[in-house]
Automatic annotation (TrEMBL):
Keyword line: NAD, Oxidoreductase
Name of the protein this chain belongs to: 3-hydroxy-3-methylglutaryl coenzyme A reductase
Reaction equation(s) it catalyzes: (R)-mevalonate + 2 NAD(+) + CoA = (3S)-3-hydroxy-3-methylglutaryl-CoA + 2 NADH + 2 H(+)
Sequence similarity: Belongs to the HMG-CoA reductase family.
Pathway: Metabolic intermediate metabolism; (R)-mevalonate degradation; (S)-3-hydroxy-3-methylglutaryl-CoA from (R)-mevalonate: step 1/1
Organism of this sequence: Maribacter vaceletii
Keyword Iron attached: no
Top EC category: oxidoreductase
Alphabetical list of Pfam families matching this protein: HMG-CoA_red
Species lineage: Bacteria, Pseudomonadati, Bacteroidota, Flavobacteriia, Flavobacteriales
Keyword set includes NAD: yes
CDD domains, per database record: HMG-CoA_reductase_classII
One GO process term, biological-process aspect: coenzyme A metabolic process
InterPro entries: HMG_CoA_Rdtase, HMG_CoA_Rdtase_bac-typ, HMG_CoA_Rdtase_cat_sf, HMG_CoA_Rdtase_CS, HMG_CoA_Rdtase_NAD(P)-bd_sf, HMG_CoA_Rdtase_sub-bd_dom_sf
Amino acid sequence: MTKPITGFSKLTKAEKIDWIANEYTKHPEATKKILSDYWNTDAQLQKLHDEFIENTISNFYLPLGIAPNFLINGKLLSIPMVIEESSVVAAASKAAKFWLERGGFKTTIIGTEKIGQVHFMYSGDLPKLQGFFKTVHSKLINEASSITKNMEKRGGGITKIELRDKTDKLKNYYQLHCTFETMDAMGANFINSCLEQFATTFKKEAQNYALFSDKEKNIEVVMSILSNYTPNCLVKAEVSCPIEDLNLHNKVSPKEFAQKMVRAIAIAKSEPHRAVTHNKGIMNGVDAVVLATGNDFRAIEAGVHAYASKDGSYSSLTHATLENGVFKFWIEIPLALGTIGGLTNLHPLVKLAFEILQKPSAKELMQIVAVAGLAQNFGAVSSLVTTGIQEGHMKMHLLNILNQLGATEKEKEAIINHFKNNTVSHSAVLEAYENLKK
Ligand code: MEV
Protein backbone atom coordinates (compact mmCIF):
# COMPACT_ATOMS: atom_id res chain seq x y z
CA MET A 1 0.00 0.00 0.00
CA THR A 2 1.44 3.36 -1.08
CA LYS A 3 1.89 5.93 1.71
CA PRO A 4 1.03 9.63 1.31
CA ILE A 5 4.03 11.78 0.48
CA THR A 6 4.91 15.18 1.91
CA GLY A 7 7.16 17.63 0.11
CA PHE A 8 6.62 16.09 -3.34
CA SER A 9 6.82 19.52 -4.98
CA LYS A 10 10.27 20.06 -3.41
CA LEU A 11 11.76 16.94 -5.03
CA THR A 12 13.82 17.31 -8.20
CA LYS A 13 12.25 16.19 -11.46
CA ALA A 14 14.32 12.97 -11.38
CA GLU A 15 13.27 12.27 -7.79
CA LYS A 16 9.61 12.85 -8.66
CA ILE A 17 9.91 10.42 -11.54
CA ASP A 18 11.65 7.81 -9.36
CA TRP A 19 8.90 8.08 -6.78
CA ILE A 20 5.96 7.81 -9.18
CA ALA A 21 7.63 5.02 -11.19
CA ASN A 22 8.42 2.95 -8.10
CA GLU A 23 5.22 3.58 -6.19
CA TYR A 24 2.64 3.32 -8.94
CA THR A 25 3.96 1.41 -11.95
CA LYS A 26 4.84 -2.22 -12.53
CA HIS A 27 7.97 -1.56 -14.56
CA PRO A 28 9.76 1.51 -13.20
CA GLU A 29 12.53 1.46 -15.81
CA ALA A 30 10.01 1.33 -18.67
CA THR A 31 8.07 4.19 -17.04
CA LYS A 32 11.21 6.31 -16.86
CA LYS A 33 11.99 5.58 -20.49
CA ILE A 34 8.50 6.61 -21.69
CA LEU A 35 8.63 9.82 -19.70
CA SER A 36 12.07 10.77 -20.98
CA ASP A 37 11.21 9.79 -24.58
CA TYR A 38 8.76 12.68 -24.55
CA TRP A 39 11.22 15.28 -23.26
CA ASN A 40 12.44 17.82 -25.72
CA THR A 41 16.09 17.40 -26.70
CA ASP A 42 16.50 21.18 -26.41
CA ALA A 43 16.98 21.63 -22.65
CA GLN A 44 15.87 25.29 -22.71
CA LEU A 45 12.66 24.42 -24.49
CA GLN A 46 12.02 21.58 -22.07
CA LYS A 47 12.58 23.93 -19.12
CA LEU A 48 10.02 26.35 -20.58
CA HIS A 49 7.43 23.57 -20.73
CA ASP A 50 8.36 22.26 -17.28
CA GLU A 51 7.64 25.66 -15.84
CA PHE A 52 4.16 26.09 -17.33
CA ILE A 53 2.74 24.01 -14.48
CA GLU A 54 3.86 22.35 -11.26
CA ASN A 55 5.34 18.89 -10.67
CA THR A 56 6.03 18.40 -14.39
CA ILE A 57 7.51 15.02 -15.28
CA SER A 58 7.12 14.99 -19.05
CA ASN A 59 5.22 16.45 -22.00
CA PHE A 60 1.89 15.15 -23.27
CA TYR A 61 1.71 15.59 -27.02
CA LEU A 62 -1.41 16.38 -29.00
CA PRO A 63 -1.26 16.61 -32.79
CA LEU A 64 -1.27 20.05 -34.40
CA GLY A 65 -3.07 19.95 -37.76
CA ILE A 66 -3.95 22.54 -40.38
CA ALA A 67 -7.35 23.12 -41.98
CA PRO A 68 -6.72 25.29 -45.07
CA ASN A 69 -9.04 27.30 -47.36
CA PHE A 70 -11.12 29.22 -44.82
CA LEU A 71 -12.46 32.35 -46.50
CA ILE A 72 -13.56 34.62 -43.63
CA ASN A 73 -14.91 38.08 -44.53
CA GLY A 74 -12.97 37.90 -47.78
CA LYS A 75 -9.65 36.90 -46.12
CA LEU A 76 -8.21 33.46 -46.85
CA LEU A 77 -6.87 31.71 -43.76
CA SER A 78 -5.42 28.35 -42.79
CA ILE A 79 -6.51 27.37 -39.31
CA PRO A 80 -4.19 25.52 -36.89
CA MET A 81 -6.07 22.90 -34.85
CA VAL A 82 -4.86 20.92 -31.85
CA ILE A 83 -6.96 17.79 -31.34
CA GLU A 84 -6.52 14.07 -30.76
CA GLU A 85 -9.67 12.94 -32.62
CA SER A 86 -9.35 11.72 -36.21
CA SER A 87 -11.77 13.17 -38.82
CA VAL A 88 -12.11 16.59 -37.19
CA VAL A 89 -9.43 18.38 -39.22
CA ALA A 90 -10.56 16.60 -42.39
CA ALA A 91 -14.18 17.64 -41.80
CA ALA A 92 -13.17 21.26 -41.13
CA SER A 93 -11.04 21.34 -44.28
CA LYS A 94 -13.85 19.86 -46.36
CA ALA A 95 -16.42 22.36 -45.06
CA ALA A 96 -13.96 25.23 -45.62
CA LYS A 97 -13.42 24.20 -49.24
CA PHE A 98 -17.15 23.78 -49.81
CA TRP A 99 -17.97 27.29 -48.52
CA LEU A 100 -14.91 28.83 -50.20
CA GLU A 101 -16.68 28.19 -53.48
CA ARG A 102 -19.93 29.72 -52.14
CA GLY A 103 -18.79 33.10 -50.81
CA GLY A 104 -17.08 31.97 -47.61
CA PHE A 105 -17.93 32.76 -44.01
CA LYS A 106 -19.22 36.13 -42.78
CA THR A 107 -18.77 37.11 -39.17
CA THR A 108 -19.89 39.85 -36.78
CA ILE A 109 -18.76 40.75 -33.28
CA ILE A 110 -21.91 41.31 -31.23
CA GLY A 111 -20.10 42.33 -28.02
CA THR A 112 -16.85 42.04 -26.07
CA GLU A 113 -18.05 42.54 -22.49
CA LYS A 114 -16.29 40.56 -19.74
CA ILE A 115 -17.78 40.06 -16.28
CA GLY A 116 -16.51 39.73 -12.73
CA GLN A 117 -18.25 39.71 -9.36
CA VAL A 118 -17.56 40.47 -5.73
CA HIS A 119 -19.89 38.19 -3.76
CA PHE A 120 -20.69 39.48 -0.30
CA MET A 121 -23.04 39.07 2.66
CA TYR A 122 -24.73 42.05 4.30
CA SER A 123 -27.36 41.86 6.98
CA GLY A 124 -29.12 45.18 7.19
CA ASP A 125 -31.20 47.73 5.48
CA LEU A 126 -31.15 47.65 1.64
CA PRO A 127 -31.68 51.41 1.03
CA LYS A 128 -28.72 52.08 3.33
CA LEU A 129 -26.56 49.66 1.34
CA GLN A 130 -27.68 51.37 -1.87
CA GLY A 131 -26.79 54.78 -0.37
CA PHE A 132 -23.38 53.45 0.68
CA PHE A 133 -22.77 52.00 -2.81
CA LYS A 134 -23.50 55.42 -4.38
CA THR A 135 -20.97 57.17 -2.13
CA VAL A 136 -18.28 54.53 -2.56
CA HIS A 137 -18.67 53.98 -6.35
CA SER A 138 -16.05 56.51 -7.51
CA LYS A 139 -13.63 55.36 -4.80
CA LEU A 140 -13.91 51.78 -6.06
CA ILE A 141 -12.75 52.96 -9.47
CA ASN A 142 -10.10 55.39 -8.19
CA GLU A 143 -8.46 52.93 -5.84
CA ALA A 144 -8.11 50.44 -8.73
CA SER A 145 -6.40 53.03 -10.94
CA SER A 146 -2.91 51.55 -10.63
CA ILE A 147 -4.33 48.28 -11.99
CA THR A 148 -6.45 49.88 -14.74
CA LYS A 149 -3.92 52.49 -15.95
CA ASN A 150 -2.30 50.34 -18.64
CA MET A 151 -5.55 48.74 -19.77
CA GLU A 152 -7.07 52.23 -20.16
CA LYS A 153 -4.12 53.28 -22.34
CA ARG A 154 -5.01 50.37 -24.63
CA GLY A 155 -8.65 51.50 -24.78
CA GLY A 156 -10.10 49.15 -22.15
CA GLY A 157 -10.88 49.21 -18.43
CA ILE A 158 -13.82 49.00 -16.06
CA THR A 159 -17.09 49.69 -17.88
CA LYS A 160 -19.63 49.37 -15.06
CA ILE A 161 -20.01 48.44 -11.40
CA GLU A 162 -23.53 47.56 -10.23
CA LEU A 163 -24.88 46.59 -6.86
CA ARG A 164 -27.12 43.53 -7.21
CA ASP A 165 -29.53 42.29 -4.59
CA LYS A 166 -29.49 38.48 -4.68
CA THR A 167 -31.37 37.91 -1.44
CA ASP A 168 -34.22 36.16 -3.27
CA LYS A 169 -31.67 33.39 -4.03
CA LEU A 170 -29.79 33.37 -0.72
CA LYS A 171 -30.35 35.23 2.55
CA ASN A 172 -28.11 38.33 2.90
CA TYR A 173 -26.40 37.71 -0.45
CA TYR A 174 -25.42 40.69 -2.63
CA GLN A 175 -22.96 41.28 -5.46
CA LEU A 176 -20.90 43.94 -7.04
CA HIS A 177 -21.54 42.87 -10.62
CA CYS A 178 -18.77 44.44 -12.69
CA THR A 179 -18.14 44.60 -16.40
CA PHE A 180 -14.88 45.19 -18.23
CA GLU A 181 -13.37 45.75 -21.65
CA THR A 182 -10.07 43.88 -21.84
CA MET A 183 -9.14 44.53 -25.50
CA ASP A 184 -6.74 41.82 -26.79
CA ALA A 185 -6.29 40.14 -23.40
CA MET A 186 -8.57 37.40 -22.15
CA GLY A 187 -8.31 39.51 -19.03
CA ALA A 188 -8.60 37.02 -16.17
CA ASN A 189 -5.70 38.47 -14.17
CA PHE A 190 -6.75 42.05 -14.86
CA ILE A 191 -10.36 41.38 -13.83
CA ASN A 192 -9.46 39.39 -10.71
CA SER A 193 -6.99 42.07 -9.58
CA CYS A 194 -9.63 44.80 -10.05
CA LEU A 195 -12.21 42.73 -8.16
CA GLU A 196 -9.92 42.07 -5.21
CA GLN A 197 -9.18 45.78 -5.01
CA PHE A 198 -12.93 46.60 -5.17
CA ALA A 199 -13.50 44.15 -2.31
CA THR A 200 -10.78 45.75 -0.17
CA THR A 201 -12.10 49.28 -0.79
CA PHE A 202 -15.71 48.21 -0.23
CA LYS A 203 -15.00 46.54 3.11
CA LYS A 204 -12.76 49.34 4.34
CA GLU A 205 -15.22 52.09 3.42
CA ALA A 206 -18.12 50.19 4.98
CA GLN A 207 -16.26 50.26 8.30
CA ASN A 208 -16.15 54.08 8.08
CA TYR A 209 -19.68 54.66 6.80
CA ALA A 210 -21.43 56.68 9.47
CA LEU A 211 -24.97 55.64 8.50
CA PHE A 212 -24.28 51.92 8.98
CA SER A 213 -24.95 50.26 12.32
CA ASP A 214 -22.10 48.18 13.75
CA LYS A 215 -23.72 45.05 12.30
CA GLU A 216 -24.11 46.64 8.86
CA LYS A 217 -20.49 47.78 8.82
CA ASN A 218 -19.37 44.17 8.92
CA ILE A 219 -19.78 43.32 5.26
CA GLU A 220 -18.42 39.83 4.66
CA VAL A 221 -16.76 39.46 1.26
CA VAL A 222 -17.08 35.77 0.38
CA MET A 223 -15.08 35.86 -2.86
CA SER A 224 -14.04 38.03 -5.79
CA ILE A 225 -13.70 36.31 -9.14
CA LEU A 226 -14.36 36.76 -12.84
CA SER A 227 -17.28 34.92 -14.41
CA ASN A 228 -16.62 32.56 -17.29
CA TYR A 229 -20.21 33.11 -18.36
CA THR A 230 -19.84 35.94 -20.87
CA PRO A 231 -23.14 36.12 -22.80
CA ASN A 232 -22.25 39.61 -24.05
CA CYS A 233 -18.81 38.62 -25.34
CA LEU A 234 -20.50 37.23 -28.36
CA VAL A 235 -19.70 36.51 -32.00
CA LYS A 236 -21.83 35.42 -34.93
CA ALA A 237 -20.52 33.45 -37.92
CA GLU A 238 -22.67 32.51 -40.88
CA VAL A 239 -22.76 30.96 -44.33
CA SER A 240 -25.53 31.06 -46.91
CA CYS A 241 -26.17 30.06 -50.50
CA PRO A 242 -29.00 29.41 -52.95
CA ILE A 243 -30.41 25.91 -52.37
CA GLU A 244 -29.26 24.66 -55.76
CA ASP A 245 -25.65 25.25 -54.73
CA LEU A 246 -25.96 22.68 -51.96
CA ASN A 247 -24.87 19.94 -54.36
CA LEU A 248 -22.81 18.24 -51.70
CA HIS A 249 -23.92 14.71 -52.18
CA ASN A 250 -24.59 12.75 -55.36
CA LYS A 251 -27.39 10.68 -53.83
CA VAL A 252 -29.27 13.50 -52.08
CA SER A 253 -30.68 16.44 -54.03
CA PRO A 254 -29.70 19.97 -52.88
CA LYS A 255 -33.27 20.68 -51.76
CA GLU A 256 -33.56 17.45 -49.82
CA PHE A 257 -30.15 18.07 -48.27
CA ALA A 258 -31.13 21.60 -47.17
CA GLN A 259 -34.36 20.28 -45.65
CA LYS A 260 -32.52 17.51 -43.81
CA MET A 261 -30.01 20.04 -42.42
CA VAL A 262 -32.76 22.38 -41.21
CA ARG A 263 -34.59 19.47 -39.62
CA ALA A 264 -31.44 18.20 -37.91
CA ILE A 265 -30.85 21.66 -36.42
CA ALA A 266 -34.50 21.83 -35.32
CA ILE A 267 -34.04 18.52 -33.50
CA ALA A 268 -30.89 19.81 -31.76
CA LYS A 269 -32.79 22.95 -30.77
CA SER A 270 -35.62 21.01 -29.20
CA GLU A 271 -33.97 18.01 -27.57
CA PRO A 272 -31.14 18.27 -25.01
CA HIS A 273 -29.68 14.77 -25.60
CA ARG A 274 -29.15 15.60 -29.25
CA ALA A 275 -28.19 19.21 -28.49
CA VAL A 276 -25.30 18.12 -26.25
CA THR A 277 -23.79 15.89 -28.97
CA HIS A 278 -24.51 18.48 -31.64
CA ASN A 279 -22.70 21.13 -29.59
CA LYS A 280 -19.91 18.67 -28.80
CA GLY A 281 -19.26 18.53 -32.54
CA ILE A 282 -19.11 22.34 -32.59
CA MET A 283 -16.64 22.26 -29.70
CA ASN A 284 -14.43 19.84 -31.69
CA GLY A 285 -13.67 22.83 -33.91
CA VAL A 286 -13.79 25.51 -31.23
CA ASP A 287 -11.54 23.78 -28.68
CA ALA A 288 -8.99 22.76 -31.32
CA VAL A 289 -8.34 26.40 -32.25
CA VAL A 290 -8.63 27.58 -28.64
CA LEU A 291 -5.90 25.07 -27.69
CA ALA A 292 -3.68 25.90 -30.68
CA THR A 293 -3.82 29.57 -29.69
CA GLY A 294 -2.98 28.92 -26.02
CA ASN A 295 -6.38 29.97 -24.71
CA ASP A 296 -8.27 28.40 -21.80
CA PHE A 297 -10.60 25.76 -23.27
CA ARG A 298 -12.19 24.97 -19.90
CA ALA A 299 -13.32 28.58 -19.55
CA ILE A 300 -14.68 28.53 -23.09
CA GLU A 301 -16.47 25.21 -22.60
CA ALA A 302 -18.08 26.31 -19.32
CA GLY A 303 -19.30 29.60 -20.81
CA VAL A 304 -20.51 28.10 -24.06
CA HIS A 305 -22.63 25.40 -22.41
CA ALA A 306 -24.16 27.92 -19.99
CA TYR A 307 -25.04 30.03 -23.04
CA ALA A 308 -26.59 27.01 -24.74
CA SER A 309 -29.00 26.81 -21.77
CA LYS A 310 -29.78 30.51 -21.54
CA ASP A 311 -33.44 30.09 -22.53
CA GLY A 312 -34.09 27.52 -19.81
CA SER A 313 -33.33 24.34 -21.69
CA TYR A 314 -30.06 23.13 -23.23
CA SER A 315 -30.22 23.81 -26.97
CA SER A 316 -28.27 24.04 -30.22
CA LEU A 317 -25.68 26.78 -30.70
CA THR A 318 -26.25 26.72 -34.44
CA HIS A 319 -29.32 27.74 -36.40
CA ALA A 320 -30.52 27.11 -39.95
CA THR A 321 -33.26 28.47 -42.16
CA LEU A 322 -34.50 27.74 -45.65
CA GLU A 323 -36.31 30.79 -46.97
CA ASN A 324 -36.92 32.18 -50.46
CA GLY A 325 -34.68 29.55 -51.97
CA VAL A 326 -31.74 30.44 -49.73
CA PHE A 327 -30.13 28.17 -47.14
CA LYS A 328 -28.68 30.05 -44.15
CA PHE A 329 -26.63 28.45 -41.43
CA TRP A 330 -25.15 30.33 -38.47
CA ILE A 331 -23.74 30.15 -34.98
CA GLU A 332 -23.86 32.60 -32.10
CA ILE A 333 -21.34 31.79 -29.44
CA PRO A 334 -19.74 33.55 -26.45
CA LEU A 335 -15.94 33.44 -26.74
CA ALA A 336 -13.77 35.31 -24.23
CA LEU A 337 -10.39 34.91 -25.91
CA GLY A 338 -7.01 36.60 -25.77
CA THR A 339 -4.21 37.12 -28.24
CA ILE A 340 -1.82 38.63 -25.70
CA GLY A 341 -0.81 37.49 -22.21
CA GLY A 342 -0.91 34.00 -20.75
CA LEU A 343 0.69 31.31 -22.92
CA THR A 344 0.33 33.44 -26.06
CA ASN A 345 3.79 34.99 -25.79
CA LEU A 346 5.45 31.96 -24.22
CA HIS A 347 4.65 28.76 -26.11
CA PRO A 348 6.61 28.61 -29.39
CA LEU A 349 3.83 26.67 -31.16
CA VAL A 350 1.20 29.12 -29.96
CA LYS A 351 3.28 31.98 -31.34
CA LEU A 352 3.51 30.10 -34.61
CA ALA A 353 -0.26 29.51 -34.64
CA PHE A 354 -0.75 33.28 -34.34
CA GLU A 355 1.67 33.88 -37.17
CA ILE A 356 -0.20 31.39 -39.38
CA LEU A 357 -3.45 33.17 -38.48
CA GLN A 358 -1.87 36.48 -39.57
CA LYS A 359 -1.58 37.89 -36.03
CA PRO A 360 -5.27 38.32 -35.23
CA SER A 361 -6.66 40.69 -32.61
CA ALA A 362 -8.85 39.09 -29.93
CA LYS A 363 -11.93 40.13 -31.93
CA GLU A 364 -10.54 38.49 -35.07
CA LEU A 365 -9.69 35.35 -33.12
CA MET A 366 -13.28 35.20 -31.81
CA GLN A 367 -14.44 35.24 -35.43
CA ILE A 368 -12.00 32.55 -36.54
CA VAL A 369 -12.93 30.26 -33.65
CA ALA A 370 -16.66 30.72 -34.29
CA VAL A 371 -16.08 29.85 -37.94
CA ALA A 372 -14.17 26.70 -36.96
CA GLY A 373 -17.12 25.67 -34.79
CA LEU A 374 -19.65 26.37 -37.53
CA ALA A 375 -17.60 24.52 -40.17
CA GLN A 376 -17.22 21.53 -37.88
CA ASN A 377 -20.95 21.43 -37.23
CA PHE A 378 -21.71 21.71 -40.93
CA GLY A 379 -19.33 18.81 -41.61
CA ALA A 380 -20.72 16.58 -38.86
CA VAL A 381 -24.41 17.23 -39.49
CA SER A 382 -24.09 16.98 -43.28
CA SER A 383 -22.52 13.52 -42.85
CA LEU A 384 -25.11 12.49 -40.28
CA VAL A 385 -28.06 13.34 -42.52
CA THR A 386 -26.57 11.67 -45.61
CA THR A 387 -24.06 8.81 -45.33
CA GLY A 388 -23.92 8.59 -41.53
CA ILE A 389 -20.83 9.49 -39.57
CA GLN A 390 -19.08 6.12 -39.46
CA GLU A 391 -18.14 5.81 -43.12
CA GLY A 392 -15.81 8.82 -43.10
CA HIS A 393 -14.85 8.46 -39.46
CA MET A 394 -13.71 4.84 -39.73
CA LYS A 395 -11.70 5.60 -42.86
CA MET A 396 -9.85 8.26 -40.87
CA HIS A 397 -9.58 5.95 -37.86
CA LEU A 398 -8.09 3.15 -39.96
CA LEU A 399 -4.55 4.38 -39.43
CA ASN A 400 -5.04 4.42 -35.65
CA ILE A 401 -6.18 0.78 -35.74
CA LEU A 402 -3.21 -0.20 -37.92
CA ASN A 403 -0.82 1.59 -35.57
CA GLN A 404 -2.36 -0.23 -32.61
CA LEU A 405 -1.75 -3.53 -34.43
CA GLY A 406 1.88 -2.54 -35.07
CA ALA A 407 1.53 -2.74 -38.88
CA THR A 408 4.59 -1.87 -40.98
CA GLU A 409 4.47 0.95 -43.55
CA LYS A 410 4.10 -1.63 -46.35
CA GLU A 411 1.27 -3.44 -44.55
CA LYS A 412 -0.48 -0.12 -43.88
CA GLU A 413 -0.33 0.81 -47.54
CA ALA A 414 -1.80 -2.53 -48.63
CA ILE A 415 -4.63 -2.41 -46.08
CA ILE A 416 -5.50 1.23 -46.77
CA ASN A 417 -5.74 0.24 -50.44
CA HIS A 418 -8.01 -2.68 -49.60
CA PHE A 419 -10.39 -0.43 -47.64
CA LYS A 420 -10.76 2.07 -50.47
CA ASN A 421 -13.58 -0.17 -51.65
CA ASN A 422 -14.57 -1.93 -48.43
CA THR A 423 -16.33 -0.86 -45.25
CA VAL A 424 -13.98 -0.21 -42.35
CA SER A 425 -14.75 -1.77 -38.99
CA HIS A 426 -12.39 -2.86 -36.24
CA SER A 427 -12.97 -6.56 -36.93
CA ALA A 428 -12.69 -6.10 -40.73
CA VAL A 429 -9.30 -4.40 -40.28
CA LEU A 430 -8.15 -7.18 -37.95
CA GLU A 431 -9.22 -9.80 -40.48
CA ALA A 432 -7.52 -7.99 -43.37
CA TYR A 433 -4.35 -7.66 -41.31
CA GLU A 434 -4.35 -11.34 -40.35
CA ASN A 435 -4.94 -12.37 -43.98
CA LEU A 436 -2.04 -10.23 -45.05
CA LYS A 437 0.22 -11.80 -42.45
CA LYS A 438 -0.59 -15.34 -43.67
C1 MEV B 1 -18.02 13.46 -32.78
O1 MEV B 1 -16.83 13.87 -32.16
C2 MEV B 1 -18.95 14.63 -33.01
C3 MEV B 1 -20.33 14.29 -33.57
O2 MEV B 1 -20.98 13.35 -32.71
C4 MEV B 1 -21.10 15.57 -33.62
C5 MEV B 1 -22.57 15.42 -33.96
O3 MEV B 1 -23.15 14.37 -33.67
O4 MEV B 1 -23.12 16.40 -34.51
C6 MEV B 1 -20.24 13.64 -34.92
